[in-house]
TrEMBL record:
It comes from Halalkalibacter oceani. This is Thioredoxin family protein. SUPFAM superfamilies: Thioredoxin-like. InterPro entries: Thioredoxin-like_sf, Thioredoxin_domain. Residues 13-155 form the Thioredoxin domain. It comes from the Bacteria. Pfam families: Thioredoxin (PF00085). Residues 131-158 are annotated as: Disordered.
Length: 158
């Protein structure tokens, strides 16, 4: 009986140590992140060094820009969304090629964006002119569709 208690105690201590190490590792990975949050979802942490996910905008920054009447093109995505994982390698470089400053808003980390911006599905790209929504694309599109849509937005900004 004593052996069972000893082994049970060892198992409990090991699980506790594992939980602490995992929590510390996650917290270290989250430090200094562009999201300004202490804790990030593990799928967001995986994207922190990915060049496709560097031009991040926070909801407060976006709201302030829109209140100032600025033009913005925003890609609303979730790191857990399979369609977003397929879209980002197409959309982000296409926007760069065309010269559109595509900023990314992570709806997994900022769930209020779903309601605040009427997001129904990810991926969604919205172009704002003078602080107001001008156009949006929902769901995955082809490279050609993104090129055409982004080119029209770039032309109107010129």
């Amino acid at each position: 009986m004593k052996k069972l208690l000893v082994y049970g105690g060892i198992v409990v201590v090991l699980f506790a140590a594992l939980a602490i190490v995992t929590s510390m590792k996650s917290q270290q990975a989250s430090e200094g992140n562009p999201f300004g949050k202490e804790r990030l979802d593990p799928s967001t942490i995986k994207q922190l060094d990915d060049p496709l996910y560097q031009n991040i905008i926070l909801p407060d920054e976006l709201q302030a820009s829109l209140e100032n009447g600025e033009d913005k093109t925003i890609y609303f995505y979730s790191p857990t969304c399979p369609a977003c994982q397929q879209t980002s390698p197409v959309l982000v470089p296409t926007a760069e090629e065309i010269g559109v400053n595509l900023e990314l808003l992570n709806v997994l980390e900022f769930e209020e964006a779903w309601a605040d911006f009427g997001i129904n599905v990810t991926p969604t790209v919205i172009h704002f002119e003078n602080g107001e929504e001008e156009s949006r694309l929902e769901s995955s599109q082809t490279k050609e569709e993104y090129e055409q849509w982004l080119s029209e937005r770039a032309d109107s900004a010129s």
